[in-house]
Each structure stands twice: as structure tokens, then as C-alpha cells.
Protein: Thiamine-monophosphate kinase
Amino acid sequence: MKTLKDMGEHNAIAALTANLKAVGDDCAVLPLDDQYDLILTSDPLIENVHFFSETPPERIGHKAVCRVLSDFAAMGAEPQYLVVNVVASPAQDFQTLERIYAEFSSLWEIYGAEVVGGDLAQGPVLELHVFGVGRVPKGKALLRSGAKSGDHIYVTGPLGCSQQTGKQFRFEPRLEWAKELRESGTVTAMMDVSDGLATDLRHILKASGVGAELDSSEIPRVGTLEEALYDGEDFELLFTSPAEFDFPKVGTITGNTEELLLDGNPLKAKAFEHFRK
Amino acid sequence: MKTLKDMGEHNAIAALTANLKAVGDDCAVLPLDDQYDLILTSDPLIENVHFFSETPPERIGHKAVCRVLSDFAAMGAEPQYLVVNVVASPAQDFQTLERIYAEFSSLWEIYGAEVVGGDLAQGPVLELHVFGVGRVPKGKALLRSGAKSGDHIYVTGPLGCSQQTGKQFRFEPRLEWAKELRESGTVTAMMDVSDGLATDLRHILKASGVGAELDSSEIPRVGTLEEALYDGEDFELLFTSPAEFDFPKVGTITGNTEELLLDGNPLKAKAFEHFRK
Structure:
């Protein structure tokens, strides 16, 4: 019997969705009307996996919603509505849920994405499943698949140590920057850094059929280079463009399909993956 | 410390969503464009709550998706896209997930609602969180709030014993009938029967500010009258209209706000509610 532990998260998702509409970017992009494409995404936040019983409720609510908002940023899209499924045990302290929902309201005021529905059901641990609905001007969503040899590689902020610094619970989804980058018309590929620069850049390389060379001295970091490359949950934007931007330029796209070099040497793969830890 | 068990599901949802956009129908209805309103809904399906380890994977997949499709039917709306969060333990047998996803594909062929994205995360038990996106002609969604004194009360099929008969895992979402009922232009209120006729009708009475008198001899049932009134998960449509329809007519709407009579006597409240069992 093959288990999820045997397969790992990414293989399992690939196998399950092989017969379904292509799912590979941060959000699904679907036709809506003459002006806009519909953007859909979802993220689960699960106790003992993504947060712990001592995490303040506001931080839980922030991470649950802002992970989804960051998915919209990753596409250069505008989030509009959120639907939230809460799972909790009968012994769940109600005030914790009230504080989580109060945070949802605060985030609505900042980012304009409103919780419009959801459900509450019984389960063994506290979970928040946030579904997001939004839009992007027709055909303008920024995908992972457009990077071209010679493009610069940018990140929007320092990477690494998001657990130690608490950034994983306080990060700002880069919606404004994402919109500006999309409107520049020069960004060829974009995503958010959720699994670490080394892992996430590989998604762009694979989707675009290109390679990349990173320059370690240019990677903005909080801790060590190792942490900047492999820690996850930074939620900065990672994008490629032939144009100049006032963001840290960490490397260059090459024509060597799926080859990832750091200072001229092959970079090893290593990343957090659900079920394999 | 007040817990979810102290409050019960309905009070908890009401309290949490008090400051958010009104959430009270089966789906949220939001402005989309000149022609259509956007319809959003979500339902969780949780092991040991909504299904058990011995439930065949196809039945789990069916219930997960068709509960959401039934929410669309409840509004007279058309489901278009589904996003699914799967939660599972590392020891989860992968074939079970493959069979669940194969059922999603079968249901797509029948009902036209396609799984376009989602996530897979680690947790203690198997869960499926299905989020649905769809549409309805502008201003035409059937709500719970339009029932008027003198309307007939209809249900679309026999009620009760859905656990014993297995209907809870095999029901057909009444999308076709729902569309016809909406297009008739005569339906004043509608929802699906998920918590039992007695409980769900009270939602219509409350939302519409009316009362109702049920005629026990007219309630189509699989088992006893008690089971037809209080069992849940029938997923038939419950609707009110002044017009004649070829569906079982189980009672009449009255002007006595929130008074629910069965054969002339007050009907007691009793229903499955999460956290209170």
C-alpha cells in the first residue's frame, strides 16, 4: 500500500490532479467575462502543522488569510472575496475564534478581501481553510511559465528565518507591488516564496523550461545563506524580467533547462514538504 | 471559558459572522457583472463526523462534492468551478485519494462543475473541504427570505433515514429541478434539506418572518414521521410558492411569525447540531 509519506506532497498532488484541469500556479485562472479572468485559490492552516496552540489567535487569522492574499499577489491579481471553513473540537475556546474573526475584519479593511461565507464543523484540531476568489485583467495573470534566458531574477525582500523572526505570522502580502509589476508589462514569470527560494525558483525553471544562475552575494537575507535559500514562508515575490527594477536582483535566467547554479555550482534540492518530514 | 460545545454550531456561526457581510443562505450571493451574480459556498467533510474509515472512497468523494452542488441547487444557481483542500495523515493510503478524485471527475461529467485547484496538507484525520464557485442570473437567486402567507410548502422527494439507506452518500443534487423552479418565477423561498425538514423549514420561517402549518399525512417519507421531520442529509429541495407544482405539497405558510404547527399542534425543535452531540 502506497502512502502519502511514501509519495510526498508534490508527487501526490501531481498524480491526483493529472486528469483535472492544469493546476500548477499559485492560483487557478479561469475565463470570467470580456474584461477579467477569474482567480481561485485555497490554503489550509492546521494546528500543530502551520501554527501551535500557543500562537496568538490574531497571528493565526493573519497567516490563514494572508497566505491566500499572497497567492493572489503571486499572479498579479486582485482578491475580492474569501470563504472560510473552520474545523474545531467541541472544547474549543470560543474567544479564540472571535479573535481570529476580528483579525479577518481588520485585514478586510487593509486589503479589501471580505469573508462572505463559510462553515464550522467538528474535528480533532483547529483548522482554517481559506478559499479566495478574485480577478485579473483578461490574459494578464502572471504565471510561472514565462521566464526567458537573459531575464533578471528579483525578490521583493529579505529571505530566511521567518519562523525565528515571527515573519511567518506577520508578513505583508505584496499585493500593491504585484499590481505595479503586472502593470509594468515586463514581468515574464512570478510566484511567491512559500517553500524557500531554491525550491520555488525550480518551479519557475520547470514551468518555463529554462535554467538559472544565482549570485549568493546578492541574495538579501535575515540569517545565513542556507536559511535564505531553504527556509520557507517568506511570502516575498520572486519574479523574472528583462527590465530594471528597484528590488534585489539575485540572479539571471539561462537557457540550460532546469539547471540551477549558485555562484557557478549546482544547487542541491532541499525543502520542507508535507508528509515527508 | 465559553466553548463551542456550550454555544452550539448555529449560535457560534451567528456570533462569528455578526460583523461580516450577511451570511444566512446556503451560498453567498455577490455582484459579478451586468448579467450574473456570483455564487460562493463551501462544505467540509470530516472523517468520524461526516463519514467513517469504512466508507468507500467513491461515496466520500460523492458526498463531498454533491453537498456543495446541493447548496447551488438550493439557490437555483449553476455551479462552475470547485477547489478542494484535502487534509490527510502521512499514513493515508494514496489509492483512497485516487478513487476520491476519480469520483470528482465522474461528477464533473454529470454536473459540469470542475475541480480546478486545491491543496493537500497534513492533519490527524482525512478531510475534504470543497469550495464552489458559480453563478445565477442577476437578482434571481432563490433565498430563504421570500416566503409569504398562503404559499404552499413543497419538498422534491421522500425524507428521512438517509443514514440507514445510504442516501447520504448517493443523493442527487437537484440542480435541474432547481433551475426549472427558478425559471418558473413563482418560487418565493428555497433551500436544501440538510438538517431535517423541521429544522430547515424554521430557517425559512425566521428569514421570511412567517409561520407554517405542516400536514403530516402529506410528508413523503422513507421511515417514520419522526425520521422524516428530524433526520438530516436528505438533500431534497424545500421551497414555497403560491403556484401549483407536481411535487409533494407538505403544508402552508401562515402569517404567524416563526410559529411551526404540525396537524395544528406546535412542533418541537430537535436537530443534529455540530458540537452539541
In short: Chain B touches chain A through 70 residues (CB under 8 Å).
